[in-house]
Amino acid sequence: MQEIELKFLVSQARLKGLMRQAKVKSSQDIHMAAHYFDTPKQALAQAGIGLRIRQEGDTWVQTIKAGGDGMAARLEHNTVLDTDHVQAMLDGNNLMPDLCLYKDTYIAPALADFKVKKLAKTLTRQYVTDIQRTTRMLENNSNSLEMAYDEGEIIHGNDDSQRQPIQEIEFELVSGELAFLFATAKIWCKRYKLCLSTVTKAEHGGLLVKGEDYSPAVKADLQQLNVNKDSSMPAFIRAAIHNCLLQILPNSSAIVAGSEANSHILQLRIGLRRLTVALDTFNKFSEQLNPEWQPILKQTAALLGDYYELAYLTSHIEPILVQHGAPSIDWTIEVEHKTIKPIDAVSDNDLQLALLELIEFTMNDPCTEAQSDILAIDKLSKILSKKYMKLLENVQIFNDKDDNGLEFSDLEPDSYTYKIRCLLEDLRYISEFAAPLYGKKKSKRWLKCLTKAQKSLSQYHEHIQYQQYYQQKAVTDTDALYGAGWFAASLKTDHKRCQKHLDRIQDSATFW
């Protein structure tokens, strides 16, 4: 069957209030000890599969989870095991799952890439979860869902001194409408400042085994963009948003859990940018889009961008300059003045509620909309052409300024370079969403050309910003003049590189 659930991290400040709602007369407490299995190289985890044997009260259940939409839905297969047989394996310290249970079941395709007999021989216990779960059923007419609050720890399978605490709440739809699950989750999210998390207990355990705190940052994966020539307008926008969320949610989950890695911040920022481009560009593809999403997403991306630029300057740019002989500059004061940290921006309740609504939107049936009989491809060519012509107009301005012998970086570079950079990003992301509906060969060449131009403009814009950072710093610390001069000297080369890539766009054949 398909398991549909939403998982959240719990705010410590709101825990007491939440527990008053979780622990009511009808709620139940149960102790769960689960043993998770994988190969030594974690082949199952790499395939997105979780395999466990869990004690639930007096019952032992073998569970496998796989597939799903990467956000709220996963395939799940549960089998109640013979208690005496499990106890005998435990006594002999040879507890092991039975993979034969999945033969000829709906979960079997998840294991199709494995030689099951060989896999069974290589499985080992990777980690154990020791969880105290409080459950409560929430019902409304024919709708029913289970709220489960989990608190406990994950323990390394070979070294019980290595442990990681777990504290999360889940809402799983038992029966009824999807809307009831999301409506309930939004109420609890708003009231108790919950933060969405896509990190499963299996993923937590895998990280513990590898000695890592967070999963690597997730980049956009266009292979998971599920669109084709027959996609309707409502289906197309849902697929585009879903693809963006697959990048956004893992990175936002890491940040709300405490990650301060530049990679998570950068990829979340890019994911939000891709999402706002999709919402802005395809706003007429669905009548169910909420115009209130964009300002929230854009504000979060801007806050992350401000923080990332300074953090990257401190952790990467400054060491490079020092390595080349520059005097060291202390940016501590500037960093401390950033009162809104990434965790604050991402934990903001408005963003979390918007993400919940976006997940719900992608899971709603596009066939219920009035425009479900209109193909997306019938609209995309006009959209792409309009964006392309807008970009060409600005490229011409770029070239005219250069022909007049004016330094491009001297003509309000912060605003102008940002504008043309945004136009390139818009066209790139729209092209990526649309490419699967057209010829692969032509779209691949186009995207390669567009991506190079966008990256060169981004680098140019960033170098201008870094030059300004050092120039402003030089007011109080003259040692910063080295950095200001370094980036000022790089702008001419950056400018020529940008012009070269922009000229190639003008000469390139479009794919639509």
Walk me through what this model shows.
By secondary structure, the chain is α+β, with helices and mostly antiparallel strands. It has three domains: 2-212, Hypothetical Protein Pfu-838710-001; 218-230 and 238-364; 376-512, Up-down Bundle (Four Helix Bundle (Hemerythrin (Met), subunit A)), CATH 1.20.120. The protein has 16 helices and nine strands. An eight-stranded antiparallel barrel has the order 1-5-4-3-2-6-7-8. The longest helix is centred in the last third of the chain and has 34 residues, at 440-473. The model is unreliable at 404-414 (pLDDT under 50).
Give the helices and strands as they follow along the chain: EHEHEEEHHEEEHEHHHHHHHHHHH
Using only CA atoms, what is the Rg? 26 Å
Beta strand count: 9
Strands ordered across the widest β-sheet: 1-5-4-3-2-6-7-8
CATH architecture of the largest domain: Beta Barrel
CATH homologous superfamily assignment of the largest domain: Hypothetical Protein Pfu-838710-001
Residue fraction in strands: 15-25%
Low-confidence stretches: 404-414
Q: What is the fold named in CATH at topology level of the largest domain?
A: Hypothetical Protein Pfu-838710-001
CATH class call of the largest domain: Mainly Beta
Helix/strand structural class = alpha+beta
Beginning-to-end CA distance, first to last residue: 40 Å
Number of helices: 16
Number of separate domains = 3
* Portion of residues within helices: 40-55%
Largest sheet: 8 strands, antiparallel, barrel
What is the molecular shape?
globular
For the residues shown, what is the average pLDDT? 92
GO molecular function, one term: inorganic triphosphate phosphatase activity
Domain CHAD: 230-511
Domain CYTH: 1-210
Organism: Psychrobacter frigidicola
